[in-house]
Design brief:
Two copies of one chain form a homodimer. Chain A is about 30% helix and about 25% strand. By secondary structure, chain A is an alpha/beta fold. Chain A has helices at about 25-35, 55-60, 65-70, 75, 140-165, 180-195, 225-235, 280, 325-345, 390-405, 405-420, and strands at about 5, 15-20, 40-45, 50, 70, 85, 90-95, 100, 105-110, 110-115, 120, 170-175, 210, 240, 245-250, 255, 260-265, 265-270, 275, 290-295, 305-310, 315, 315, 320, 365-370, 375-380, 385-390, 440-445, 445-450. In chain A, the strands form ten sheets. The first copy, chain A, has a five-stranded parallel β-sheet, with helices on one face. Chain A has a four-stranded mixed β-sheet with strand order 1-9-8-7, with no helix packed on it. Chain A folds into two domains: about 5-120 and about 275-345, FAD/NAD(P)-binding domain (3-Layer(bba) Sandwich), CATH 3.50.50.60; about 125-270 and about 365-450, FAD/NAD(P)-binding domain (3-Layer(bba) Sandwich), CATH 3.50.50.100. At the A-B interface, helix 3, strand 5, strand 6, helix 5 and helix 11 of A face helix 3, strand 5, strand 6, helix 5 and helix 11 of B.
């Protein structure tokens, strides 16, 4: 096993080595926090880009382009001379020797290890559903969802020409969390505002969007008044919601809720997530979703040199689990960078107590958009408030532009939104990838687009 | 066989039906020219978007996004009430009955048929090369080329870490026409200007770009003085050119020129094109490349109701064949629309002689860029001149923004170029699709990225 002494940029042999696995919000924030320290930092991600996940649904629904919300990790960290970026994947760990075996065959040694490999979809053991109901975690997922939604209209138009009728354009979204709600609002908007003018035979504004949510309410993490507002605003867009609906099967063209069959030209998955498998692979105690149980310094038990960040970490605060969204991930990354700075300033072995009181999530609030001009916002800082409708939507817009990494992206997204929302412009409704159109599956009268080359959503993201 | 009476928008049964196959420059221009006539027009394309092909290489080299240079065909033709768009593909023709069998199963009847299904890569019978040396015709091709070029740097970086050396970063472009020259200049720029700062272990500016051209000179269609200028400007970028070099084999990691083996981490194909197979399928006389021999009205022999446009048409003018590029395609589309207008105004059967003198290509000139700030331009109108260097490049910039379809695209491309060229910004260097990294093929010491999921470039574009 070749041991690679990576990232030596000076003071050979004297600088502590930090390896960060995962270039999401937590990993990038950790790396940026370590950028000016006398350490050697190696960021490992199997993709070459950081993705601004809160806007992924806008790529899926053809408002934004992939390049608007993603940035090469190398570019983000380019100006940190102490940091190197590796496009690779962790396969095995030797925690005693503090070594990581990468997929390429190289071995990385570390003094500190930050694991922030996030989460992926969970189909609750029904992995065969993944091709029928894609979820939304990566740019590739987003492009695939876009392809399916746009293709559904094209297929309906063609079937109308051939037979004079087409199956109901019902889009089913499994899961009523923020992603499900945002996808639902966006599909409804696309159908009613943008697609309506484009077809001669079908009426895209008759498209139906249905959210199937297993729990008693959508947006379970939000307070009841905002849940109610969100439901009202969705109803205003024509989106139907069924709560307490447990999906028992997903098939081409339909889903089953108990014994009831519900037609679906496109089914999307926004129901469950599971943590990256690395937590289990490293042998740490995990919760049901695979998140690693950590102490107040985000260390798994017995390993003060290892930090678990972002979605992969199970952090309890005030009796509740810190949610797996962007804000806590960023804050954990920032925390870990500071913690490593303290530990290395004092030398390894010092526990840092008295310096670090431990991680505490500072919740500024949560937001979810509902279509083109509404949202719900639970604001916690700088004041407490529950907003809905247009003011919440404007807040959402400003916050998301602000937090996008990279000026080019900020400008680009701003411009794109201005065009799309103010001028009702086209967005980027390109169907790329397989454009196979012969794949109607007609089962019991319902046709559904079958992907000729479905995205492989099989293996969870590991870094 | 169901006969679909398509696009009836009024005057049922009295309006002539025009079917256009192919939404490239020729087809779109024909459709736009027919937009206000009392005809029923159906545009059929197997993709949902029109692609501005002259800028495809900028998508391939990560300067522009796919959405910047493509526009949904439905959007382009949205405001023409007499036009419908079908995402489908012609499979069979019955010229006597004037019917087209589509892939979906529907049958289209026509009174006039415009066939503008363009061309695709020709590997001169070596179709197995297509996966090893992708060409550049579609957005998917462009994304695939981008993926391979960017991945080559990532792979070299990783191999450097593992073994302390990496195979020479030599990019080989087979074919020295405008596309080959533009790809070469762009790869050289990317390596030297943008990638150089991003890596710690390799030196991207040592990347080599080599053009292999079979004929005695690059840019064979250009006058000798501009060929020379182009070669000088390419040399200034460090691009090497070998003329009279006939490629005898393409393998992972290298190409063979005669008995000589030339290392190539990425091989790109810009050598040959062949026409869409529809010309042969319809039984018309074609040239060696499959282009349909047409008369002065762009009709194949014996079919005054059928028009062949764009790359698919073999048109001779002043003893030379009109080239298969954007300008003549647009002009043929315009011509056909006017011709159909004349014919239908007078009733079918009138040959239109005395009205139409026939198609004549009005050549305004040709341009090819060479990297970030140089180009060669053979200007024919409004004055004759041969330009090279920066003035030619500025001309290229202005002309291409002007001809882009859609204001959003124009604005977007302009902005992107301003960022990229003026501020040395990042462009959109995202690797999407397969990010498989375990695929080093080491043959005789040379490593090459092997695509885990290569693009299927097998079947030529048929509409």
């Amino acid at each position: 096993m070749a041991v690679v002494r990576h990232g030596r940029t000076g003071n050979e042999g004297f600088r502590k080595r930090v390896v960060i696995l995962g270039g999401g919000f937590a990993g990038i924030h950790a790396a940026m926090g370590l950028g000016k320290l006398p350490l050697d930092v190696t960021m490992v991600d199997r993709k070459n880009h950081h993705t601004f996940q809160p806007l992924l649904y806008q790529v899926a629904l053809a408002v934004l382009s992939p390049a608007d919300i993603a940035q090469p990790i190398r570019s983000i960290l380019r100006n940190q001379p102490n940091t190197e970026v590796l496009m690779d994947e962790a396969m095995e760990f030797n925690l005693d020797r503090r070594e990581i075996q990468l997929k390429s065959g190289a071995v990385l040694e570390y003094d500190y290890l930050v694991v922030a490999t996030g989460s992926t979809h969970s189909y609750f053991g029904k992995n065969e559903w993944s091709k029928l109901a894609p979820g939304l975690k990566t740019l590739e997922d987003a492009t695939e969802i876009r392809r399916r939604v746009l293709l559904a209209f094209e297929l309906a138009e063609r079937q109308m020409l051939e037979t004079g009728s087409h199956p109901p354009l019902q889009f089913v979204i499994i899961g009523g969390g923020p992603t499900g709600v945002e996808l639902a609002g966006a599909i409804s908007d696309i159908a009613k505002l943008y697609m309506a003018k484009d077809f001669r035979h079908i009426n895209p504004s008759e498209a139906q969007v249905l959210i199937l949510e297993g729990s008693p309410s959508i947006l379970a993490a939000y307070p009841p008044d905002l849940q109610k507002k969100a439901a009202e605003q969705l109803a205003g867009l024509g989106v139907k919601i069924r709560t307490g609906a447990h999906v028992s099967d997903v098939q081409p063209g339909y889903v089953m809720v108990g014994e009831e069959r519900i037609d679906a030209v496109v089914t999307l998955w926004a129901a469950g997530v599971q943590a990256s498998p690395l937590g289990k692979l490293m042998g740490f105690e995990t919760d049901r979703k695979g998140c690693v149980m950590v102490d107040k310094h985000l260390n798994p038990e017995g390993h003060p040199e290892i930090f678990i960040c972002g979605d992969l970490a199970h952090v309890e605060q005030d009796g509740k689990q810190v949610p797996g969204v962007a804000q806590p991930a960023m804050q954990m990354g920032d925390f870990v960078a500071k913690r490593i700075a303290r530990l290395t300033a004092k030398g390894l072995g010092t526990d840092g107590s008295g310096i670090d009181r431990g991680f505490r999530y500072f919740d500024k609030g949560d937001m979810a958009t509902i279509g083109r001009k509404a949202a719900v916002a639970k604001i916690e800082w700088p004041f407490k408030a529950h907003w809905s409708g247009f003011p919440a939507w404007m807040t959402w817009l400003v916050v998301h532009i602000f937090f996008l990494i990279g000026f080019r992206n900020r400008f680009s997204v701003f411009r794109q939104w201005a065009f799309t929302y103010l001028f009702f412009n086209d967005g980027v409704r390109l169907i790329t990838g397989s454009q196979e159109l012969s794949g109607w599956v007609t089962k019991e009268g319902v046709a559904a687009p079958v992907t000729a080359a479905p995205l492989d959503l099989g293996s969870p993201k590991s870094n």
